[in-house]
Structures
1.
Amino acid sequence: MRTPEIDRILDNMMQAHDNVSDLIFTVDRPIQVEASGELTPVSMNPPLDRLTPFQTEIIALNLMNMDRRLIHPLLNDGYCDLSYNLTGKARFRVNIFSQRDSFSIVMRKLETKIPTIENLELPKVFFNIAQEKNGLVLITGTTGSGKTTSLATLLNDMNESKPIHVITLEDPIEYVHPHKKATFNQRQLGTDFDSFANGLRAALRQAPKVILVGEMRDRETVEIGLSAAETGHLVLSTLHTIDAGQTINRILGMFEKEEERQIRIRLADTLRWIVCQRLLPRIGGGRKAVFEIMGTNLRVKESILNGEEEGKTFYDIISSGDTYGMQTFDKDIIRNYKEGLITEDTAILFASKRATVRRGIDMIKSARGEKTTDIDGLILDEEYDQT
């Protein structure tokens, strides 16, 4: 199996369904694609009903192009990351990993067109975030929740309006930003720098106004990121956390106990926004992004400095922060239910506080004149407990 054959297989997989987001190769399973959030097998000619360890290894080696820089971490660490270009059709972020003495491959399709805030119907506060001059902005969520896409929309808005120098540190480069008003230098982990910490340290000497760090993976990267934000740079990055409170706690947890007070002070001074996102199944197919957004105000800074207390949790602060552009997941979920974009079951399943979402849904149903309970036919038993 050679590279042209690999390209033919990838091309067939891309055309098998609409909304294909991932291509998956696993031993003892057929070739599969994830479309609209669901895994689906793909028919091939000749058939590939059950992939063998040899076949997945050959596919992996072709994707890596026998690059020793990639083979070394695959054999030593059990995985490697790379990008792959299907000429003229698509680009992919590829993860090859070992499991049960064989290799598996997951290929995430990368969009070639850079999205805009309007096209993705993101919250209007994203325009405010893109106007920040310095500090730290974090986009968080689980793997595959669209963090990179949200960051790309912010950078695109800056590119349209600001004559600034932007440096990105990515693993791998996903969206290629053309030079518009801004000047972009995009660097890829493994090819252009060896770690996010070293890449970020070098970026401070490259005169950027904006630095994008693909992921805050460790303490050293966070510490240098805070230093960059303190010295007048705008630092954009991601974390694998599910809400604003967990994001703060994750950062604090990277440091020793005796350093906690100092990190709280630095974080309170530099943090500008935390945007957390989840993808929910949309009625009619596809997925809908919902957001929790926390900006900074005096209450947020106080909670970062002193920790959360009863009635002063980050959730409570966000719930009452509408005038600052803040919103909880639950508020966004209720809004999407009201607009008919998601089902009631989906709303309850993805809620942060299910009781809050249930109350919101009941109020919407009541306003529509719909039933809010399944209990019917209640009557007064006049003979109960009579002798």
2.
Amino acid sequence: MMRGLVLLAAVATAAAQDLERPVQLTAGGTVIDTGKDIAHAGPLLADYDGDGKPDLLVGNFKGHIQVYRNVGTRVTPEFKDEGLLSVNGEPVLIHNW
């Protein structure tokens, strides 16, 4: 069983749309494991830093958002763990209850 975030890519053919084999997402060679923060990951790909490449932001059950900056390319992303999303040095907290 795979732990952490898993990427599923769809491949469209003339006959059908199939899913490729799942790929575990890593940052710095380590599997991105959302289980350490009570799981319930809310992943989002967005160009967070304005460099034209999709970065990965992952919300967790504790109300924090983990930032993984894409230091690779658009085609072959490589993620670097940048820590929690912060404003003025304080982690952003989004209450979920």
